[in-house]
TrEMBL record:
Residues 3-69 form the Transcriptional regulator HTH-type FeoC domain. NCBIfam families: PRK15431.1 (NF011960). GO terms for molecular function: DNA binding; iron ion binding; iron-sulfur cluster binding. May function as a transcriptional regulator that controls feoABC expression. It comes from Jejubacter calystegiae. Keywords: DNA-binding, Iron, Iron-sulfur, Metal-binding, Repressor, Transcription, Transcription regulation. The keyword Metal-binding applies. Iron-sulfur cluster binds at residues 56, 61, 64, 70. The keyword Hydrolase does not apply. Belongs to the FeoC family. It holds the Pfam family FeoC. This is Probable [Fe-S]-dependent transcriptional repressor.
Length: 79
């Protein structure tokens, strides 16, 4: 079972990461990792960093057939 400390330490080592990457690295379920990241955010330890849609050619992700897959959200430690 992954802990809040492991998630925090992983972000400290790697910088910005997606929740899916953290989940795979720690071998923890994605909903658990997402809940931990949100808890760390509530504690003032992490911050969400939305990535720009560089791969989106039209700039209209809402009508995109991919369903906003080009919009990713990464997490990092709050400095």
């Amino acid at each position: 079972m992954a802990t809040l400390t492991q998630v925090r330490d992983l972000l400290a080592l790697r910088g910005r990461m997606e929740a899916r990457q953290i989940s795979e690295t720690l071998g923890a379920p994605l909903p658990l990792v997402t809940a931990m990241l949100e808890r760390l955010e509530a504690m003032g330890r992490t911050v969400r960093v939305p990535d720009e849609a560089d791969g989106c050619l039209s700039g209209s992700c809402r009508s995109c057939p991919e369903g906003q897959r080009c919009l990713t959200e990464r997490w990092m430690l709050k400095v």
